[in-house]
Write a structure and sequence with these properties.
106 residues, alpha+beta, Alpha-Beta Plaits, 5-stranded antiparallel beta sheet, 2 helices, 5 strands
Length: 106
């Protein structure tokens, strides 16, 4: 859990949005589009950023949206846009605290 003063050793932060009940990728097409557009913009700007839709099985319904970025803030335009799209679904949305990303051992 990120707390005030927490630092990410790599300068990266994980933002997680849970979706209950899970939804199909087709329903989340706009969210996927937003993530893809932000990924392209970040690459052009040379910023570390990635996002994606997560399923428990390969072609199963989406249970989470994840974003890894160089900012701890959840108030960036992409986060606000993703949260707005998720809140428009007939689902419960769980928004996790930003979590610092650390290097894997080994």
């Amino acid at each position: 859990m990120a707390t005030r003063g927490s630092k990410s050793p790599l300068g990266l932060w994980l933002h997680v949005y849970g979706i209950m009940p899970p939804h199909s990728r087709k329903v989340l097409k706009k969210v996927a589009s937003l993530l893809d557009a932000q990924d392209r913009a970040a690459r052009r700007a040379g910023r570390p950023w990635t996002g994606g839709l997560i399923s428990e099985t390969k072609d199963g319904p989406v249970t989470h949206v994840v974003i890894v970025t160089d900012t701890v803030s959840r108030h960036g335009l992409i986060n606000v846009a993703v949260e707005a799209e998720l809140k428009a679904l007939a689902a419960d949305i769980f928004i996790g605290l930003p979590t610092p990303v650390s290097q894997r051992a080994g």
